[in-house]
Amino acid sequence: MVQTSRPKITLQDFLTSPEASGRCELINGQVVPKVAPKRFHSKTQRALLRWLEDWGEDKGEIGVEWAVQLVRHGQDWVPVPDLSFVYFERLPEALADEACPVPVDLAVEIISPDQTFGAMAEKATDYLTAGVLRVWVVDPRAQSITVFASDTSPMTYRSDRTLTDSHLPGLSVIPQQLFQRAGLRN
Prior knowledge:
alpha+beta; 5 helices; 12 strands; globular
């Protein structure tokens, strides 16, 4: 069987396409659908969203599957993190209904059953290289949050170990409480 490669799509074409309004990412010039979330993913996302809103609604923009315009390996990249946060002062004043035009302060990726931690760790590294300041890889099954930052080694938080970060002052997440709030029991 002969496989033909699909023509690459430009950033501008992607941003104006119907796929950009859906659950698709731009990776290496290709439109790639995101993995459809399952129950644990959805419950974790909702609980974490509430946590982020309680902390940062007055500090910045909190995005739910809000696309972000970045560059990865020298090519336009538009990932769609499960959740994101960017301080208001970093956003342009005239922001329309569009993909986030700046690297976010926090990108959150929640592992679905058909994804691996290794693949998410690689994506986290790509986020950091592209200018995102913090990446959380959340694993609902392991009930853990692994924090990636460019200036430190990844740190994994479980149980009652409190996650705090000087870049996100005042935010304090206890994984055990987060997953209980999501209705997930170990």
